[in-house]
Specification:
The complex is a heterodimer of chains A (112) and B (113). Chain A is mainly β and 112 residues long. Chain A contains no helices and eleven strands. In chain A, β9 and β10 form a beta hairpin. Chain A is globular and about 40 Å long. The radius of gyration of chain B is 13 Å and the shape is globular. In chain B, strands 2, 4, 5, 6, 9, 10 and 11 form a seven-stranded mixed sheet that branches. Chain B has a four-stranded antiparallel sheet with strand order 1-3-8-7, with no helix packed on it. Chain B has 113 residues and is mostly beta strands. Helices cover 0% and strands 50% of the residues of chain B. Chain B has no helices and eleven strands. The mean pLDDT of chain B is 93. The chains are: A mainly beta (112), B mainly beta (113).
Chain lengths: 112, 113
């Protein structure tokens, strides 16, 4: 059973527009959420995180929104740039152990 | 470059052979994690260490898998009697205690023929 789901395997967005990546989770005990970016032949790279006591966290062009009642989080990238083309993974954990449970990833393609 | 280092980057082996992967974490990080990733999936937790102590091990990790972190520095992941289903990317990550931000290595890709 998948505790963290990313239902869109891929997403194509025009350069300069907003990219919105979505993630759903089932375990209401999760209290820490992260987004990672992965380029081919590289390991995942941390992007941004959010604790369950917040509903929004912003870092430059990246904003993560958390809706606890819907068990849903999203990553917004504004404006999208060609270098943002990568696979984005959503991950969730308990603060107590940081054992991350990962989604399957969404491949983001930024079109020039 | 003082990031997480893994080797070998790619290992091809025949079924039934043993393989060992090594991970050198970022020096000031006391937590070290091993994950496995197959195509089209997110990383899957295998085990993690805090310093030299192995604190948690996934139920998915069969007895053929063993990991060590002697002296709390580098770590090795050994797979004995490899099977074709073991073919995957094996990722190592490290972090400081008390943070969830993991720093990943580039991974070691295992192909079992």
């Amino acid at each position: 059973d998948q505790q963290v789901k990313q239902n869109s395997p891929s997403l194509s967005v025009q350069e300069g527009r907003i990219s919105i990546l979505n993630c759903d989770y089932t375990n209401s005990m999760f209290d820490y959420f992260l987004w990672y970016k992965k380029y081919p032949a590289e390991g995942p790279t941390f992007l941004i995180s959010i604790s369950s006591i917040k509903d929004k966290n912003e870092d430059g062009r990246f904003t993560v929104f958390l809706n606890k009642s819907a068990k849903h989080l999203s990553l917004h990238i504004v404006p999208s740039q060609p270098g943002d083309s990568a696979v984005y993974f959503c991950a969730a954990s308990l603060y107590s152990n940081y054992q991350l449970i990962w989604g399957a990833g969404t491949k983001l393609i930024i079109k020039p | 470059d003082t990031g997480v280092s893994q080797n070998p980057r790619h290992k091809i082996t025949k079924r039934g052979q043993n393989v060992t992967f090594r991970c050198d974490p970022i020096s000031e990080h006391n937590r070290l994690y091993w994950y496995r990733q197959t195509l089209g999936q997110g990383p899957e937790f295998l085990t993690y260490f805090q310093n030299e102590a192995q604190l948690e091990k996934s139920r998915l990790l069969s007895d053929r898998f063993s990991a060590e972190r002697p002296k709390g520095s580098f770590s090795t992941l050994e797979i004995q009697r490899t099977e074709q289903g073991d073919s995957a990317m094996y990722l190592c990550a490290s972090s400081r205690q008390g943070t969830g931000e993991l720093f990943f290595g580039e991974g070691s890709r295992l192909t079992v023929l």
